[in-house]
Amino acid sequence: MAPQTAVSPAESKILHCYVQKTPGSRALHARAITLLNNGVTHVGRYLEPHPVYIERAAGSRKWDVDGNEYVDYFGGHGALILGHNHPAVVEAVTAQLPHGVHYGASHALEIEWADLIHELIPSAERVRFTNTGTEATHLALRVARAFTGRNKIIRFAGHFHGWHDHVCFPPGGAAGIIPGIVEDTLIVEPNDTASVDELLATRNDIAAIIIEPTGATFGHIPTGGDVLHRLRATATRHAVPLIFDEVITGFRCSPGGAQQFYGVTPDLTTLAKIIAGGYSGAALAGRADILSVLDYRHENGRIEPPPVLHQGTYNAGPVSAAAGIATLRQIRDHDVIERANRTAAAIREEMNATIRRRGLGWCVYGLFSDFHIYCGDASPEDIYAGKVPSCQLKGSIRPELVHKIRAGLLLHGVDIMGWPGGIVSAAHTEEDVRRTAAALEATLEMLQAEGAV
Ligand SMILES: Cc1ncc(COP(=O)(O)O)c(C=O)c1O
Questions:
Q1: Residue 257 pLDDT more than 70?
Q2: Distance from the CA of 236 to the center of ligand 1, in angstroms?
Q3: Best substitution site from 130, 131, 141, 161 to test ligand 1's pocket, by max atoms within 8 Å of Cβ?
Q4: Does residue 398 have a pLDDT over 90?
Q5: How much distance in Å is there from the Cα of 442 to the middle of ligand 1?
Q6: Are 308 and 343 members of one domain?
Q7: Whose CB has fewer CB within 10 Å in the chain, the N or C terminal residue?
Q8: For 209-223, 296-310, 328-342, 395-409, which range has the lowest pLDDT when averaged over its residues?
Q9: How far is the CA of 141 from the centre of ligand 1 (A)?
Q10: Domain containing 263: what range?
Q11: Which of residues 279, 314, 333 is at a domain's end?
């Protein structure tokens, strides 16, 4: 079955060459679309005319079924700050496997894992493990509601907190979301702390404020430290729990996440990705008094169940714990974050130089181990000065163009995410920087030749 695509490979040299280079992936995709929706398992992995099918990965690279090599900027959706198959993680996991993968019981590794999280993340007085970032933000909101006895949450438009019902719809709602949940979710514009102030001053039904502390999609719409300080002040004034969703920023902006970098301690923190070193694992961490809603109670000599029930077959699995401990130790004891940040800065610089050489007004921006491609006319300075409206940062790039940029970069050996942008690891090298700039140059040349930009 041939997939439906918006732009046919026959009309685009980029797509045509991409199809020629990836016949094995094309064949697998033809089979996949008969079984998996769109042939994929995550909306972020959808690519027209077809995605690449990867066979193996190491360090900063991965290889597809046709033997093509890519510099990888997906980085396990941000989980792999050490790169693929870091020896310390491989060793920890390999050592654990013969001891069992699921005990259905407590084990010492979960304590060691929680202890490292407590040591690194300033707000982590207590830790409750989950499997995914989505589960962690879901639990955070439920815990905040139970603790405050209030229902409504405030979140920021475009900020990503996973795919559970409370966080995955734009203002107005979306298919499949119960109207009551839409009513109980107050969505304000990114960085609009004045609206948050007003909501907290005029209502007494707010259970929590949740934010991605570096801004929507790891800083695609940037949020500065001043916004976080203002939110902290207003949340404290009105006794409303402030939740930092550090699923992507945790252990990446600094060992203690964005909260340590900006010096703002939230009441609750959600963590995932790096926390488990590429395996499934996540956590809700935060104030002991708030997380106590997860505790069994003793009343009149009886054991009462916790006010908030939280289960999960795979919570704190020993393999994930082993990988997480090995990863967090690397971050605590070595210059992992600095290396990733330095390489990302070099990538942004080289990509910007390439864009200027091609005579385009676009720019590449980012502050940590990230890069974001803006396909309008602006400089990184304009973006950080707030001169580009958030709707423009997120919504101005036509999906067809994003698909062509991604396919063009894949054609030249680089895999980026669909923001469009990417996440850099400590395993990326100067050679990766050079390859990335060359791939962008070749892609832009082809895009310009076919009048796509
Ligand atoms: C900030 C943020 N929150 C939550 C999530 C959801 O995490 P998961 O994909 O593990 O459910 C993500 C995933 O990318 C994220 O970046």
A1: yes
A2: 26
A3: 161
A4: no
A5: 32
A6: no
A7: N
A8: 395-409
A9: 15
A10: 87-333
A11: 333
